[in-house]
Design brief:
By secondary structure, the protein is α+β, with helices and mostly antiparallel strands. The protein has one domain: SH3 type barrels. It is 22% helix and 36% strand. The chain has one helix and four strands; from the N terminus they run ββββα. It has a two-stranded antiparallel ribbon.
């Protein structure tokens, strides 16, 4: 298990599918599971898309 932060909200997420994840890594989380790790550039692109869709606070 890990603590993940998204838009200032901290939640618990299972690392069962991403045992390679380390503190400070970016992970894609769905339904309480980290599904894969991504690099910082991909994380920024994803957050920007969510902001454009109105799903991510500024």
């Amino acid at each position: 298990m890990a603590r993940v932060s998204f838009a200032g909200v901290i939640k618990e997420a299972s690392l069962a599918y991403t045992p390679e994840a380390q503190p400070g890594d970016y992970v894609l989380v769905h339904a309480g599971f980290a599904l894969n790790t991504i690099d910082e550039a991909e994380a920024e692109r994803t957050l920007e898309l969510l902001r454009e869709m109105g799903e991510q606070p500024e």
